[in-house]
């Protein structure tokens, strides 16, 4: 009896029975994730984060180059797994991944008994773990900036370095630089108006939908310490502070 090509326990074939099952399960997981990866790369951001929050995004999220890469990697991996059983899959275009997936399910014994099955199972496990880690929800903090090429409003998440504008498709290599200059710009600006006008301003300029009542609540609860009451119903707001509170996940 030889050793399993993945877990190294004694096995009758290239893979032990557990690892052969695991490979089929991983292939099915990957097939379920591929369309989701594409959606992730192109999704619209929900500003203000959490489920049930009152704020909804009105700004587009840059198309994530990183998720597009993972999407390509996932489709290519599906073809490579199918190629274990039949070499012609090596030459298939990435868009043929669905056909490859069905072929794998119909011929799984051939695939899992290939001499390279252990390496490909390792590749599947790594990619699936990477996707799991990367999709674990983190703080939904975003900053709204304008695309330097076309002016499209973009919601940039905290750690996103580069992306593609969903409107003009220009590649933006320094998203965090745009975020920094946007915040600096806002810190130097104040703005006068009523809470209702502040809510409208946020919707129009910061990509966050808020209500007059929310702004009034923030003022009452001291969440806008830099705001000054000028006269009855009219306040001087610091724009950076206003945007920050509006975009905080607990804003609603
Ligand atoms: Zn094994
Ligand atoms: Zn653009």
Descriptive report:
By secondary structure, this protein is of the alpha+beta class. Mean pLDDT is 83; it is low at 44-58. It has helices at 17-42, 65-85, 97-106, 108-112, 117-135, 175-187, 195-206, 212-220, 239-247, and strands at residues 2-3, 10-11, 63-64, 142-146, 153-157, 163-164, 171-172, 190-193, 228-231, 234-238. Among the domains are: 2-43 and 65-135, no CATH class; 189-247, no CATH class. It starts with a strand and ends in a 5-residue tail after the last helix. It contains nine helices and ten strands. A hairpin with a 6-residue loop joins β1 (2-3) and β2. The protein is 49% helix and 13% strand. Bound molecules: zinc ion (2 copies). The site of one zinc ion (ZN) has 9 residues, from α1. It comes from Bifidobacterium moukalabense DSM 27321. This is PhnA protein.
Features:
252 residues; alpha+beta; 3-stranded antiparallel beta sheet; 49% helix; elongated; binds zinc ion
Mean pLDDT: 83
How many helical elements?
A: 9
The number of E-state strands comes to 10
Task: Give the distance, in angstroms, between the N- and C-terminal Cα atoms.
Answer: 62 Å
What's the helix-strand series? EEHEHHHHEEEEHEHHEEH
Structural class: alpha+beta
Regarding quaternary structure, what we see is single chain
The ligands bound in this entry are: zinc ion
Question: Can you tell me the overall shape?
Answer: elongated
Summarize the structure.
By secondary structure, this protein is of the alpha+beta class.
């Amino acid at each position: 009896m030889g050793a399993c090509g993945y877990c190294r326990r004694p096995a009758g074939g290239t893979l032990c029975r557990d690892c052969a099952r695991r490979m089929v399960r991983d292939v099915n997981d990957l097939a379920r994730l591929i369309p989701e990866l594409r959606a992730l790369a192109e999704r619209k951001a929900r500003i203000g984060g959490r489920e049930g929050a009152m704020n909804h995004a009105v700004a587009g999220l840059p198309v994530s180059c990183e998720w597009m890469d993972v999407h390509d990697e996932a489709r290519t991996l599906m073809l490579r797994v199918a190629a274990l059983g039949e070499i012609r899959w090596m030459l298939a275009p990435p868009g043929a991944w669905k056909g490859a997936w069905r072929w794998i399910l119909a011929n799984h014994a051939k695939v899992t008994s290939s001499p390279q099955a252990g390496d490909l199972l390792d590749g599947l496990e790594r990619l699936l773990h990477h996707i799991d880690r990367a999709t674990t929800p983190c703080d939904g903090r975003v900053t709204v900036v304008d695309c330097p090429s076309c002016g499209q409003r973009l919601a940039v998440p905290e750690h996103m370095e580069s992306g593609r504008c969903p409107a003009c498709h220009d590649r933006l290599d320094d998203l965090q630089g745009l975020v920094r200059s946007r915040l600096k710009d806002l810190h130097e600006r104040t703005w006068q108006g009523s809470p209702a006008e502040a809510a409208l301003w946020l919707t129009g300029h910061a990509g966050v939908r808020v209500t007059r009542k929310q702004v009034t609540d923030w003022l009452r609860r001291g969440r806008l310490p830099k705001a000054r009451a000028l006269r009855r119903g009219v306040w001087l707001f610091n724009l950076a502070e206003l945007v920050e509170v509006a975009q905080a996940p607990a804003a609603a």
